[in-house]
Structures are given as C-alpha cells and as structure tokens.
C-alpha cells in the first residue's frame, strides 16, 4: 500500500546522502519533496502541514547541525515524526476487571467489519480468551449468515437469535448477547453492528443506543484504508456519533495510497489498534506505529516477521530440521514441511516487504510467481514415501509418473530434484566448514575440504561477452540492462542468466 510513498521519500533522501553539512536550502528542498509525497499519498492537509513544520524545526536545530552524519539524522527525524502521527506507542485492548469484556465494532458498510469480527475473535482465541460473536447487523442482507460462517471458520461461538435481513431489534440482541455470554462464561463479547452507506443519522443513533445498552469497554472504528481523504470526514462523524476508543485499518494489502492510516490518528486523537492485511482470518496483526514507520521508510519490520515465523514454525521441530539439514539427512518430506510453514507467513511480497532495504527489489518481488510453491508441493506430494526419503531412486519412469500425478512436466520434476541435490551438497560442505560456494555473505573457509599441502589450480578467467567493434553497437551493449529471462525451479526470477539472490536476512529465515 505504501509503495508510492516509500519511493518518493527515498527519492527525497537521496539528495541528502554524502553531504557533510546541510544548508537551509537543502532542508527546504527535502521538506518540499516530503510534503508532495504525503499529499500525493492522500494524507490530510492539516496533518501534512504539522508534520512538515515539525521536521523543518528539528532539522534546523542542533541535533542535525552537530551530527556526524546530518543526512541520516534527518531520516531519523522523519521516522520519529511518522511514529508520532501514527500514535507513538502500541495500544493494547483494555480488558474489563469483571468479564466479559465487551468490544463493539462500528464503521461504514463495505469496510469489512463482519470479516474483521472473525479475525479479531480468532486473534483473541489465540491469546487464550474465549470470545463470542453477537450478530447485531440486522439490516444488510445475509449479514447474520456471513457472521455465522466466519465464526465457524474461527471456531468461536456466534449468538444470532434473529435472522436479520431487516428483521429484529439490534439493541435487544446486543443486550441478550451480553447476558448469554455471562451465562456461558465467555470472557469477551464482540458486537457486530450494521454498516452505513454514508453518514446515516438513524443508523448512527442505533449504534449509539447499542453502546448505551451494553456499555462496551472498547468501541473499534473499522475503516477501509483505501478510501483516502474521505476517511477524515467519516472518522470525525463516527467520533461525534459513537465516540470510538480505537481504530482498525482494513485492506492494508491493497494498492491504494494509504493516506488514511497517516491521517485518522492525528485528526481524531484515537489510536490505531489493529490492521487487517489480507483475506484470510489469520491476516490480522496488532498495529505498531514504530514498525509501520519502518516499513514506510524501507527500514523493514523484522520484529513482526520473527513473530509470524514463531507462529508458523515449531521451535523444537525447526531445531531438529536444522540438525538434519546440516547432517545431510534432509529429505523431500522435510522440504515440504518447510514450504508449508513458509506459506503460513503469507505471500512472499508481504514477507519481503518486512525486510530492510527490499524496496530496491520491488520489480523482482512483483515478478515472483506464488504458484511455483504450489507446483513444488504438488510434485513432492506425488512422490511415494520412499522417493521422498531417498530421491536418488527417482529414475526416468518414476519422474514421468510424478509429473503426471502432479500435473507438471518432467523437466519441472528434474529441476526440483537437481536443485534438491545441490542444496544437500551445499549443506554438507557447510557442515564440514567449507561454507556455501557461490552464496554471497557465506564464503568458504580457506583450505577447507582440501588435502593439506595440495596445490590449488589457478582460477581461469571467464570469457566476457564479445564487444562489438561498431561504436554505436558497443555503446548499446554498455548501456543495456539485464532483463528477466525466466525463473528457476523455485519460482525466483532469473536476471542475465543468474538467479535472483535473496537478501541474507530472508535466507537465514528460510
């Protein structure tokens, strides 16, 4: 969502790098570029004005003029101000001293409240709570049915005494739901209210009546992060009508400019508490202002990535897998488990977006075909247990059978098997202290795996590409950029005949 803003901010900072001192003109120029970047991202004008004023004031002060690296100090100031307008600190749910804790959802129709109710209930369940969903959206067609479906997917209780579709009193349902939660010992109640197509006075009053009836501990305003400048008007109307205590941003995985996320907190004074980042019930996370600022400035969000990895991978099993891998006994079955664990982290573009400095690889990331993982898993699942345990027995007839069973071509099976053997060989060399040949950042140790006193053959120079004698053709050769020319068996784009190298942080994680 923040790709455009990220690119513009990086462009603004580029001119600062390498300068020993920053003049007033330099500060004015970068402030102007940041202002344009924020306005283009649909951030509210008053928020932009305050943000730029704070940045210029701090950038002109002693903390920059006396810094060893003024450019980095300015970037730090921008990061600090982003954290501030996003809320400063992570806001947690305030649970009631005497259960149940009541959480009421409010927002426009289409913002994703009902799905969000399921995501929130699953998240609470993972926190050790016992949530119950209460269907108080009795206006929208099939809203009650939708809540029952997401509740079943999340594995939580849904209280829905009325069929909805215009039938039933939502205030009575909310009151009865609270009583039922006390009777059945549920410690959290999530009340799903009717959405509004606009600022509807009647439905706004209905939401206020529900709030008065159940006295919620938290009222969460659910807002679509893609609606742009209108987010400010909508948020102010709900603040006056319902007086919410926190904000939930949905559709953060979209391609809109994302200004709502940077505006709502400053305009309303209410913290952003959660973010919905996809369609799955697990695509839901606590909103951390400092981590979001890091993503916007391409500094990454390794803490969130580590937290998600801890959920996806069992620590003890991961340690056993690592031991098997280093010992050379890593099998296709182990690879399948690793791929399934990676899939739980979300899309590769989402994972890579959390790694510092990945903004420069956007084109390669966007070219990554997520379906390649499905192809690899299908190939492995078409193997017999014996073949997974010992791929060396996979001869020509077996490869043909595996390709037919997985709906792939024989060359796909060949490529996967060859790369698997290559992976095993590299891990065995690494275990012996030889390092991984050809992998940046993990060089082989001098003399490792060689006989003592053995003479090393001098490396032959690789022949370069022939340079044309024609000046025009030679100039074209020198300026031509390498093009993506395919993908390897694992789906990573190749560039100039070479595999696209993942950053070390992601290699370590995988």
The largest β sheet comes out as: 8 strands, mixed
What are the low-pLDDT stretches, counting only 5+ consecutive residues below 50? 434-464, 478-510
Compute the CA-based radius of gyration.
28 Å
Q: Helix- and strand-based class? A: alpha/beta
Q: Count the DSSP helices.
A: 23
Overall mean pLDDT: 75
For the biggest β-sheet, the strand order reads: 3-2-4-1-5-6-7-8
Oligomer: single chain
* Number of beta-strand segments: 11
Question: How much β-strand is present in the residues?
Answer: 5-15%
| Overall 3D shape | flat
What distance lies between the first and last C-alpha atoms, to the nearest angstrom? 25 Å
Fraction of helical residues: 40-55%
Task: Describe this entry's structure for a reader.
The protein has helices spanning 3-14, 24-40, 45-59, 62-65, 70-85, 113-126, 143-154, 170-184, 201-214, 230-241, 259-268, 289-296, 302-312, 315-326, 332-344, 348-352, 362-366, 371-381, 385-389, 396-406, 410-431, 471-479, 504-509; strands at residues 101-107, 131-136, 157-159, 188-193, 218-224, 246-250, 272-276, 284-286, 484-487, 493-495, 498-499. It is an alpha/beta fold and 510 residues long. An 8-stranded mixed sheet has the order 3-2-4-1-5-6-7-8, sandwiched between helices. Strands 9-10-11 form a 3-stranded antiparallel sheet, with no helix packed on it. α8 (170-184) packs parallel to α9 (201-214). The longest helix has 22 residues, at 410-431. The radius of gyration is 28 Å and the shape is flat.
Task: Give me the secondary-structure topology.
Layout (H helix, E strand, L loop, with lengths): L2 H12 L9 H17 L4 H15 L2 H4 L4 H16 L15 E7 L5 H14 L4 E6 L6 H12 L2 E3 L10 H15 L3 E6 L7 H14 L3 E7 L5 H12 L4 E5 L8 H10 L3 E5 L7 E3 L2 H8 L5 H11 L2 H12 L5 H13 L3 H5 L9 H5 L4 H11 L3 H5 L6 H11 L3 H22 L39 H9 L4 E4 L5 E3 L2 E2 L4 H6 L1
Helix pairs in contact: 1-2, 2-3, 3-5, 5-12, 6-7, 8-9, 10-11, 15-18, 18-20, 20-21
